[in-house]
Amino acid sequence: MSVQTRSVNVQDGPRRDQESVRIRPKYYRTWRVVQYTIIYVVLIGGSAFFVIPFLWMVRSSLMRPQDIFSVPAIIFPWPIHWVNYPDFWNALPFGRFFLNTAIVTFTATIGLTFSSALVAFGFARFRFRGRGFLFLLVLATMMLPKHVTLLPTFLLFRSIGWIDTLFPLIVPSLFGSAFSVFLLRQFFLTLPLELDEAARIDGANSFRIFWQIAIPLSKPAVATVALFAFIAHWNEFLDPLIYLSSMENFTVALGLRFFVSQYSGTFWELMMAASTAAMLPIVIVFFFTQRTFIRGVALTGIKG
Questions:
Q1: Residue 296 pLDDT > 70
Q2: Which residues, in sequence order, are CB contacts of 156 under 8 Å at separation 6+?
């Protein structure tokens, strides 16, 4: 009896293991389906929270004034009122506003990206006394609020006659930013030093290594810095408000504020059309660079 019982127990062991192996994949697949369902529901809900105001703005820009606040609400504009866009464009010199913003944004973005990359390459590759202290000093400027330096900066630009010009919006960006320097330095640290040594053996100097080796290998990080700079300068409102006074020098953000102050509560469809047109360049730029942007953020480590 004992021998038979043992043989039964020995035979039951592999059967139980096989059944558990069969059950585990089913349980695992079910759990993964539930997990991904929860994740997608949360992501879709969060996306809707941010997308709905944008869609409502676009919808209102294509409607007649009496239909925007109609009860019950009209979800889809019909007929589409395309005339709102040329009407807002002609209400103020928005062509000049967009041109000024484009000049400031592209010039400042290129200057900030290049100067930040140059400084970051120096911190990542050169060994000199006080390097760590200087880098900490650069990072410390990130903790200094912009409003603290606003008055002395205004007095400086006024003393050299740059008030009511685009120079105060462009020149400070030509010297880089602490955040961009930090981001690019962290990426440069991930590049192997053997590349620099091989280039120096071939006779390349430091700037050539920076321009022909470090920058091409760091395109995701450089694109990320450029995208941040583009968005910041395109949407900048405080600096144009402080330094610009004549309408011919207004940027888009300041022109929108002036438009709201002139037509507040009357031409909602024109305000929505102007806001949609002001956001369109950022949406287009991000749409074409989102893969590079996400890759740059993901690859930028915290190597120190």
A1: no
A2: none
Is 170 in contact with 104 (CB distance < 8 Å)?
A: yes
Supply the mean pLDDT for the chain: 84
Per DSSP, the residues of 231-244 read: HHHHS--HHHHHH-
Q: What angle do CA 301, 302, 304 make, to 5 degrees?
A: 130
The phi-psi region of residue 130 (left if phi > 0; otherwise alpha if psi is between -120 and 50; otherwise beta) is left
**Which residues have a Cβ under 8 Å from the Cβ of 257 and sit 6 or more positions away?**
237, 241
* N-term to C-term CA, the chain: 70
pLDDT digits (tens, 9 = 90+) for 28-66: 778 888 888 999 999 888 888 888 888 888 888 888 888
Task: Give the C-alpha separation, 257 to 266, whole Å.
Answer: 15
Nearest to 255 by CA among 91, 63, 123: 91
- Domain range 84-299, its CATH number among 3.30.70.330, 3.30.70.270, 3.40.50.300, 1.10.3720.10: 1.10.3720.10
How many C-beta atoms lie closer than 10 Å to residue 121's C-beta?
A: 23
Distance separating alpha carbons of residues 267 and 85, to the nearest angstrom: 12
SS3 250: coil
The Cβ of residue 62 has, within 10 Å, a number of other Cβ atoms equal to 21
Cα 9 → chain centroid = 64
- Each domain of the chain, given as residue ranges in start order, spans 2-61, 84-299
CA atoms of 115 and 105, how far apart (whole Å): 15
CA distance 204 to 106: 30
| Arithmetic mean of pLDDT, 209-228 | 90
